Amino acid sequence: MDGVIYVATGAGYVDLAVQSARSVRQLNPALAIDLFTDVSAFDGAEVFDQIHPVPRDHPRVKLWCFEKSRFARTLFLDSDTLALSPFGDLFDVAARFDLAMCHDVRRRSDLVRESSLATPYAFPQLNSGVMLYRKSVEALAFFKAWRDRYNLLQNPRDQVSLKDLLWESDLRFYVLPPEFNLRRVTLLDAWEPLDALPVVLHSHRLLQHLRGEAERITDVARLLELEREALAAEWASVGGQGDPADPMARYRQVKP
Question: Do residues 203 and 80 make contact, with C-beta atoms less than 8 angstroms apart?
Fold first, then answer.
């Protein structure tokens, strides 16, 4: 059986999970959707097939929930996601690979290059906010090792321990194309018609209202508008306005 799971603690994140799950349900009506949460009652609970209680006593409680999925093949989604297209045959990837994720973006930053191991630039962190896996013996063992390494490193970002383990591991994992974890929404401006079909949008802008930083974003059009503005401002902040005669100039002047 295939299914989607969310792990959300706190009313604000549960509200976002409901929003995301509704988008999944609309495009994939036959797919089961479960929620792991510490919230006992909330609006929109009917969008989930099952709700599983979890304690809110760990900064990365999701690491304890992966193995508890009742599905043979599971798609884990962070709450700040939206389904943009039907998932199609995505779950078939989990018939061949134990684990599948997309590369993290911002790969030149110290944050995303962070590791307790020396790994090549071409082996960046993978984003754990959209993760497809099968409930194999190997995957379950990997999740346990991930929890142990996370506790050992005491780094609040779970992707650091994830990257280290993937580098060391013989686990069969696959890197999904970016349309399954669309972090840079401005790619919608760049892709040609036959390049890709956006499937899952994943943006922290969907949760920034929980931090009191911005308006609540609920649709792709407004998100794309803000991302275009942010992209221009990001390049302007480093003086990278570009040079038509040398398109690589602005990249070379950025100091990672």
Answer: yes
Helical H segments across the chain, by residue range: 11-27, 62-65, 93-96, 110-113, 137-153, 158-168, 187-190, 220-237, 249-252
* Domains along the sequence of the chain with CATH: 2-180 (3.90.550.10)
For 87, the token pair is 């998932």
216-250 pLDDT, tens digit per residue, is: 999 999 999 999 999 988 888 876 666 667 878 87
Instruction: Centre a 10 Å sphere on the Cβ of residue 163 and count the other Cβ atoms it contains.
Output: 24
At 86 the three-state DSSP class reads coil
Mind listing the pLDDT tens digit for each residue in 158-173?
Answer: 888 899 999 999 999 9
Which residues partner with 182 through β-bridges?
201
**Greater pLDDT, 154 or 100:** 100
SS3 string, 187-251, reads HHHHCCCCCCCCCEEECHHHCHHHHCCCCCCCCHHHHHHHHHHHHHHHHHHCCCCCCCCCCCHHH
Q: What proportion of the chain, given as a percentage, has pLDDT over 90?
A: 71
What's the confidence (pLDDT) of residue 56? 66
Q: What is the pLDDT of residue 14?
A: 97
* Token pair for 1: 């059986």
Q: Which residues contact residue 214 at a Cβ distance below 8 angstroms, ignoring those fewer than 6 apart?
A: 205, 208
What pairs with residue 100 in β-bridges?
132, 174
Mean pLDDT computed over every residue of the chain: 91
